[in-house]
Amino acid sequence: MIGSVMLEVNNLKKYYRVTSGLISRSSGEIRAVDGVSLTVNRGEVLGLVGESGCGKSTLGKTILRLEEPTAGEIRFNGIDVVRLNRRDLRELRGKMQIVFQDPDSSLDPRMTVGGSIGEALAVHGISDPAEQEDRVARLMEKVGLEAGFGERYPHEFSGGQKQRIGIARALAMDPQLIIADEPVSALDVSVQAQILNLMMDIRDRDGLAYIFVSHDLSVVRYLSDRVAVMYLGRIVELADKQEFFRNPLHPYTEALLSAIASLRPDGKKRILLTGDVPSPLNPPPGCRFHTRCHRVMPVCSQIEPELDQISPGHFVSCHLYA
Amino acid sequence: MKAETVLQVTGLQTWFFTRRGTVKAVNGVDFVLKRGECLCLVGESGCGKSVTALSILRLFDSPPGRIVGGEVIYRGANLATCPMPYLRKIRGGDIAMVFQNAQSSLNPVFTIGDQITEQVRVHERVSRPEALTRARKLMEEMNIPQPDRALKMYPHQMSGGMKQRAMIAMSLSCSPEILIADEPTTAVDVTIRAQIIHILQELKTGRDMSIIFITHDLSLVREIGDRAAVVYGGRVVEVAPVEDILKSPAHPYTVGLIDCLPDVSAQNKRLSSIPGNTPNPMEMPPGCPFHPRCSKVMDICRSMMPVAVNITDVHSVSCHLFVDMAEGRPR
């Protein structure tokens, strides 16, 4: 059940410096995340959608401080995550976990999967072998794997099973928040459903929250409570799921939804965007979407719109609604 | 009106003979392609849909791969056995192919313009400037901005969506009768995907071209397909017009595949899923390849491969559940 605010992100920025030449002369910066603010409540699933390069994965990693933020504030249960020293951060990470897209590259091929899950426990101070073994077995059961599989190596598992192992490892320290970065994109449709069901079961049982990063809107619609859309490092729209899919406001959201037949709002035509996403190295002035927008106005290339609340819980960053 | 058949595939078997065993990637695929239609081959990874497409033009590596049985009939000739020089004329000329990964199918050391003109001049006796004019026109048709500039670009200078469109332009340069598109939108973003689907739809109606569209994504099938063939374990298990497949799927695998789509299931309800995993083509189960995962499995399924039966005149399915129905006996 959805409770009070657990995670609060304020004006978070992550820039990457781009260097060129032998003496590493700085030639600009990529603004992967450029001023993002959002909240996640206890037990809530926040869907984070966007196209490749929009910064959604970087945002997820920066919240966990797997990438050091350039600026901004992250508060988890009131704790200022940005200022934590290494030891406190490690302790906190037990409560905030991540599941990656590609289970192949996130599991050590030379370690048994039981070892991989047990390592997470050891890092957090559970080093007694008997207790470790017991907890690994329970975690594996929790994600629908036989406890005896712990002796096996990652290559002996299918993609769906490997993703279950990744989830078991994330659950090791009973986290309150899991950032799931495209956890089902690499899986076949029939297996994808198994993993989505598992994730929802875990949420219902343990009451944890997810930030579910995905490019697949039908998956996001299925499991999110709220949805945020990112474009070139910024959130352009954020709303409750029902509102989001019934009444999309930002022209970019409209285009995204209209691209998929089953999600297209009734009576709407497909909106074809021209061109590609501009480079985050050199984003367009004004509204970043104005170069591809089908409802562009003169003001859009001048002034960058703010993310404003235009009805309760529905935030849009677009001059059309100013 | 019944459209004429342009390509007929019967009993196609493509096996790969590796040191670790024989991989029966395609094991008895049948389908026909009509003029001006888009036929979707739908299936999960490893089901044999891509190898089927490659087999039509014999584009797989041989060895280890070999077509061990079946026919691919195009213009009265069997492409599975015809001499190489004949097949080479067909490839890229009459039947063209677009691959999933444009990056690896384009040559990085030649400009896009060079690559398109080369393709044209291999198949037709035209001058270089003439071929270049044609290339430019195609780039325009693909909505590529500044086509003259784009022709002078190397693949790495283009974005993913542009490369995919340049690939399609190249495949169209000899006005093929059939276009085989193997997951052309899997590696691109949603908005770019919409652009490419739009282009393919225009081609189908504008040029009366036949398209074989290979995908794992049922929502794309709804967008672009006229008919769909569901592939599982190296065989086509169900063929029907797209609306029929989506509204009244017959094969238990198709039913499962549609049910586990989040956009079809009711909101916040458990998704139904198919237990288990797709079979390893090296150790295909005996009988119906789907029987270990099937919720309606019967004894006969474990030992006998079902044959395709027509449940309506446009809808056929390979499943023992429907055998009696085809013979007119109620179950």
List the helices and strands and how they pair.
The complex is a heterodimer of chains A (322) and B (331).
Chain A lengths: L4 E16 L4 E17 L3 E5 L6 H8 L7 E6 L2 E2 L5 H8 L2 E4 L3 H4 L6 H11 L5 H14 L16 H12 L6 E5 L7 H18 L2 E6 L2 H7 L2 E6 L2 E7 H6 L4 H8 L49 E4 L2 E3 L6
Parallel strand pairs in A: 3-8, 3-9, 6-7, 7-8
Antiparallel strand pairs in A: 1-2, 1-4, 4-5, 9-10, 10-12, 11-12
Helix pairs in contact in A: 4-5, 4-6, 5-6, 6-7
Chain B lengths: L4 E14 L2 E14 L3 E5 L6 H8 L8 E10 L2 E2 L5 H7 L4 E4 L3 H4 L6 H12 L4 H14 L5 H5 L8 H13 L5 E5 L7 H18 L2 E6 L2 H7 L2 E6 L2 E7 H6 L4 H8 L48 E5 L2 E4 L4 H4 L5
Parallel strand pairs in B: 3-8, 3-9, 6-7, 7-8
Antiparallel strand pairs in B: 1-2, 1-4, 4-5, 9-10, 10-12, 11-12
List keywords for this structure.
heterodimer, A: 322 residues, alpha/beta, 8-stranded mixed beta sheet, 30% helix, 25% strand, B: 331 residues, 4-stranded antiparallel beta sheet, 12 helices, globular
Treating each run of at least 4 consecutive H or I residues as one helix, how many helices of chain B?
12
Strand content of chain A: 25-35%
Beta-strand segment tally of chain B: 12
End-to-end Cα distance of chain A, whole Å, is 34 Å
Overall average pLDDT of chain A: 89
Residue-averaged pLDDT of chain B? 88
Largest interface: A-B, 37 and 40 residues
- Give the proportion of residues in helices of chain B: 25-40%
Spatial separation of the terminal alpha carbons of chain B: 34 Å
The H/E string of chain A reads EEEHEEHEHHHHEHEHEEHHEE
Helix content of chain A: 25-40%
**Run of helices and strands of chain B:** EEEHEEHEHHHHHEHEHEEHHEEH
What's the shape of chain B?
Answer: globular
Low-confidence stretches of chain A: none
Oligomer: heterodimer
Q: Nearest-angstrom radius of gyration of chain A?
A: 21 Å
Report the principal-axis shape of chain A.
globular
Give the amount of beta strand of chain B, in percent: 15-25%
User: SS-based structural class of chain A?
Assistant: alpha/beta
